[in-house]
Each structure stands twice: as C-alpha cells, then as structure tokens.
Amino acid sequence: MAILSFRAVVKPTLDIDETHNKEVPLVIYGVTVFGDGECCVMYDDLADAVSKQLDEKEGNLLLEQLENNFSINEDCIYLDGAKVQQDTGLMDKNGTPVFEGDIVHLACEDGGKWVGVVKWDYGAWGIDFKDWKPDVRDLHASLEVAGNIVLTPDVKLDKIKKSEEMK
Asked: What pTM was computed for the model?
C-alpha cells in the first residue's frame, strides 16, 4: 500500500528585531490530513526540518513563532494558510521527487525547450506547458525540477517568458 506524501509550504514573517522583518519560507515534508479547512502535517522532527533550512538564530525565532501561532504537538502541526502540494510518486532525471506545483524543464531531442508546472488535471498528473499538457508519467525521466511556484515564483515567470520566446 502506498502512502501519499506531501509538502506543506508556510511563509511566516519573522520579527528579527524592531526594524527588520523577513518572510521565511519553510517546507515541511510529511503525511498530510485535511479536514474542516485545516491542514495537519505529520512530520518526523520539526526542529530538525527547521535547522536544515535556516540558521540557528532564524530557526529558533521561527520555531517560537510557529509554537505561538500554530497548534503543534510532538509529531503533528496544524497549519492555517499553508500551500500543500502532493508528491506525484515520480522522480525527475536527477532523482529529485516531483511534487505538485513544481516548475519543470524538458529539453527535446530537436533542440526545443519546454517549461511547465506540474498539476493534477483530469484525474492524472500533468504538466502545463501552455499549449501542450502531457502526462507526467510519460516524461518524468526526461524532466528536471527547476523550482516551485510557491517557493520560487520568480523562476516560473522568468523561465516561462524565455520558453515562450523560443517558440
């Protein structure tokens, strides 16, 4: 039996000091449960996840803020306003897991280049390449994950413009 895994992306604003605020994206991987408009992410070790993404000072501030603003117990965090993205169960050509919302590149044998976003569409994982929407399963071994629409929206805009100029 396969267990669906997800990543939840939260972008809290850290109050670093009286004059500095910083929006810090945090990605939490785990099994996600939905209900009554809430999202609960079951994780292995929240402190470990934070320490891998932030330095010690910012990590401690973020953990304190999460504890004050979200319901957390030893292995679950209830997130309000998190962007939750499901794992497709596939890997790109570099072995990177492909998630919903990932920005992917595809280089074709004829020299053409495509940039698209992974989406759940008509009961299957597809890639929105604007004019072409193939199934991820058909291309995952040729794809390269370049970013994510939540974490790196600038990558999406920049790369899609370049892709459209190539056509």
From this structure: 0.69
